Amino acid sequence: QVQLVESGGGLVQPGGSLGLSCAASGISFHRYVMGWYRQAPGKQRELVASITSGGSSNYADSVKGRFTISRDNAKKTVTLQMNSLKPDDTAVYYCNARLWSVYWGQGTLVTVSE
User: Fold this and answer.
1) What is the β-pairing status of strands 10-12 and 3-7?
2) pLDDT recorded at residue 22
3) What CA–CA distances, in Å, run from 15 to 20, 23, 82, 84?
């Protein structure tokens, strides 16, 4: 059974930082492209960042220079370090694993507000 379990969401002030983590089980983690997506209220889910099995990363223009994605194949985890957070970053953040199949985590809420 495949499981992607996110942690680390919460409330943070504008300009603050937050780290999200996703622990995977039931997949050959090192082979998968891992990603973080987000969905704000009333908006479509969008890609935030992704990282290949070889460690190449890709970011949405809106988060470049502020967010960093990384992975630890031994621990089967992928993290998203978010700095200089803005209210527009408020969303539910989802972990994603993609190879021949696509798997999603349950999501974790990030709220950026005073």
Assistant:
1) unpaired
2) 98
3) 16, 27, 10, 4
pLDDT category of residue 108 using cuts at 50, 70 and 90: very high
2-61 pLDDT per residue, tens: 999 999 999 999 999 999 999 999 999 999 999 999 999 999 999 999 999 999 999 999
* Closest C-alpha among 5, 8, 7, 10 to residue 97: 5
Closest CA to 7 of 47, 36, 43: 36
Which conformational region is residue 65 in: left (phi greater than 0), alpha (psi within -120 to 50 degrees), or beta?
A: left
Q: What is the separation of C-alpha 36 from the centre of its chain, rounded to a whole number of angstroms?
A: 3
Across the chain, which distance is largest between two alpha carbons, in Å?
Answer: 42
Match 């999200």 to its residue by tokens: 20
Q: Are strands 10-12 and 108-112 parallel, antiparallel or unpaired?
A: parallel
Cα separation of 71 and 24, whole Å? 11
